[in-house]
Design a protein that fits this description.
about 300 residues, alpha+beta, 4-stranded antiparallel beta sheet, two-stranded antiparallel ribbon
Length: about 300
Amino acid sequence: MNNQKDNQQTPQNHTQPYPYYAPPQDNEINLLDLWKILAKQKKLIFILTAITTFAALTYALLATPIYRAEALLAPVAKEKGGQLSALAGQFGGLASLAGINLGGGGGDIEEAIATLKSKAFINEFIKNENLMPILFENVWDKNTKQWINIENPPTLWNAYKKFKSILAIGQNNKTGLITLTIDWKDPVLASEWAGDLVERLNNKLRKEAIMASEKSIKYLEAELQKTSVIEIKESIYSLIEVQTKTKMLANTQDEYVFRVLDRAIVPEEKLKPKRTQIVIIGFFLGGVIGIIAVFFRQAISTKKT
């Protein structure tokens, strides 16, 4: 009976949990394996690093040095007549016809900077200073005084773009001071150009102011003969007086728009290239290229096997 009961009993399945171990992956690489790969291929890394460093050193030694000449300028304060502004409402139409600005004149400096950057001003400077052979000396034959490629010489537009790239003008919003810089391979020319640009700009705007005043005075004097109204005559006399003062000031003030606080001197230190930085960058870049080359080479060999 016991045997029958035992046979009738359903055997119990006793399952015991077993720890699961992931099979090792052949493509898993730990830091030690990486280090072993790099150490094994250290010769390749050294060669690529040496080549890149040598190339950077060669460039640093052969690159044309660039110097920066810098001039610090201050806007010349102009006397904006309160009397002139008071006439704006009363006599603004006639003043406008006479070419007289009755506003505050706050945009004078911005206009002067815009003139300094303009194509007309820079092109005139390039032509007057005969800078084309200097800006494009690599295609200029000094012996024959001609362009090497006569059929396709550089144009004035090319010269403007090149000169604009070496010229920089910045204004400090807090102090109002203006910095003019010229970056060029000849430090003497860089300092001369910086000084000449400011001088030419002052002369140009000064002459334009004198011509504008003379034109305004001539117009106002003609209008003075056409009226018999005392109030209008007094207003015209006031406008003539202001224009006469403007003309007188322009004739006696060489630094008409910008006053030079710190003249551009011949720079002695190179702006670029920074040889030490270039060599250091070349060294680290070579190391990175070497490491990438080693891993790339290792990946190719692994796929083949």
